[in-house]
Amino acid sequence: MSSRLVIHSARLLDPATGGFLAASALAVDGEGRIAAIGDDREVRALAGAGTTVVDLKGAVVTPGLVDGHVHPVTGAELTGGLDLSGCAGLGDVREALAREARRLRRGGWLFAWGLDPNVFGDEPVGIAPFDAVLDGVPAFLLLFDAHSALASRRALELAGIDGPRTFAQASAEIVCDAEGRPTGLLQEDAACELVERVAPQPNRAERLERLASALDAMAAAGLTGGHVMDANGDSLDLFAELDAAGRLPLRLRVAPWCQPGTDDAGVRELIALQGRGGALWQVAGVKLFMDGTIDNGTAWLERPDCHGESTHAFWPDPEAYTEIIGALHRAGVPTATHAIGDAAVRHVLDSVEKARATGGDPAVRHRVEHIETVPDDTLRRFAQLGVVASMQPTHCCDFTRADHTDNWSRRLGEERAGRAWRCRDLVDSGATVVLGSDWPIAPFPPLGVLAGAVHRRPTRDLAQPPHGPEQALSPLEALRGLTTGAAYAAGEERLSGRLAVGHRADLTVLAADPLTTPAADLPDVPVLLTAVDGRVTHRAPQL
Question: What is the arithmetic mean of pLDDT over 159-185?
Fold first, then answer.
């Protein structure tokens, strides 16, 4: 047997068994599968002339870490502008925008991302606080949730936006004041796209290089794969080009969007698209939306928020969504639905239950993305229906506060804010929980995601109290969310997610044990090596 890779002098951590294996080395065959696990002497004997042999010097090997919810193409494009995520108040935002505006050429556009609505305090979210520094500057400021943005007065003028409009997306809105004048706040994609269409865009070559750089950074952070929750524009072509050139360092599972208004022909196109792919990427599933976000008042709640908002579904006719879920299920296509509010999550579960009752393959795995607040009766249905819960714990850490003074919590009120990101309750109920970042909404390094699931504290100030500490996961449960849970969600638990002979050799090597390292220190643990199919995609200089 000719081995592609042999690693030895390692500690092999298999989350499926809950601990370290009684072995110190593994070998990867030419097909990229784990061919042998054993002691150093017997495994090193499998190395040939062309084998990459790595002495790990006691480092820890885990199955490759997989981000369960990520937007690499969108993220690579959006994060090319000014990062406002570190701004704590309106003054910080104004200073950052003023510096960037001075740097721009006359007539140039200002792009920014990561704006936290909490900087507005009790004031309405709008462009007015920044009018003085953006006078005459076309600017597009994406809020952290990527479901809303602020457009400057000049940007609104260039886009021809001078009042409200109606959109097929029920939650989309050009927010206007009492006199019907736009405040600059644009809700959901349909409204944001009005400005994006008139703004300059990077060319294809630039976009390809931004994507390649982002994926390389993900590999260096320890990721071997990602569940990609969009396939807009030419995303699939970009993945195919990188894959063909041997520049794709992650295994990507892609779910294209199904938007309101999709007819039978559109559903058939989505079904026909399944399976398209290459060596390291594949279309597998469909992404839908049942609501927007709590922060901008476009979630779907069973009771309105404190502003009387978040009362409607993303689909003008929720039953049309239900019918599409049924059609996809009967075609054997797994679905992933963005559902944040309690009413949205309930409707998704109702739709999956109805779809399963109409036939189709019972092995098809549907999932719900985000699940930010749900009551007990809804929570219990995940395990009953076999629906995967996809969670992003760093959202709870960085966009809410333990004292419920943040925008998200104030909108919901004490009762519902007390049900924030119920990771623990979902695991205890028997549901499969997958963890991810939702990058570019939150940073993609997976060790930060693991840490947030365990400590639930603000990343910028770990001395602050946790939000809902009773919902914290153990380190092992968190690790499973990025390994075995991700494999199960993809229907690939017999191929990936563990260290076992015959499984894919997607591997992450860490300088310390993620199960015993304090959660606060976990994001700083060096990632020494990452491999996909036994091919090294990242190797630290010290290894």
Answer: 93
Query: Is there a single domain that holds both residue 29 and residue 126?
Result: no
Indicate if 49 and 85 belong to the same structural domain. Answer: no
pLDDT digit string, tens, across residues 493-520:
999 999 999 999 999 999 999 999 999 9
Q: Average pLDDT in the 145-163 region?
A: 94
Q: Which domain holds residue 527?
A: 1-58+498-543
Query: Other CB atoms closer than 10 Å to residue 17's CB: what's the count?
Result: 11
The amino acid present at 492, given as its one-letter code, is: E
Q: b/e string for 460-476 if b means 16 or more Cβ within 10 A?
A: eeeeeebbbeebbbebe
pLDDT over 60 (residue 1): no
For the beta carbon of residue 234, count every other beta carbon within 10 angstroms: 14
162 token code pair? 């001078």
How far is 306 from 253, CA to CA, in rounded Å? 38
| Residue spans of alpha helices (H) in 1-145 | 40-44, 72-78, 90-103
Co-location of 116 and 187 in the same domain: yes
Do 165 and 93 fall within a single domain?
yes
Judged against a pLDDT cut of 90, whether residue 96 lies above it is answered with yes
Point out which residues pair with 148 in neighbouring strands.
Answer: 187
Average pLDDT in the 429-433 region?
A: 98
Mean pLDDT for the chain overall: 95
Is 410 inside a domain boundary? no
Q: Which structure tokens are listed for 488?
A: 């199960």
| CATH, residue 11 | 2.30.40.10
Q: Write the pLDDT tens digit of every residue in 301-349.
A: 999 999 999 999 999 999 999 999 999 999 999 999 999 999 999 999 9
Chain centre to alpha carbon of residue 413: 26
Angle at which helices 204-220 and 235-244 pack, to 10 degrees?
70
pLDDT for the residue numbered 171: 82
Nearest to 335 by CA among 372, 375, 296, 366: 366
| Maximal C-alpha separation, the chain | 79
Name 33's bridge partners: 504
Residue 216 lies in a domain: no
- Based on the structure, what is the number of domains in the chain? 2
Domain boundary among 196, 217, 234: 196
Based on the number of CB atoms within 10 Å of its own CB, is 477 exposed (0-12), middle (13-18) or buried (19 or more)?
buried
Residue 185's beta-bridge partner residues? Answer: 150
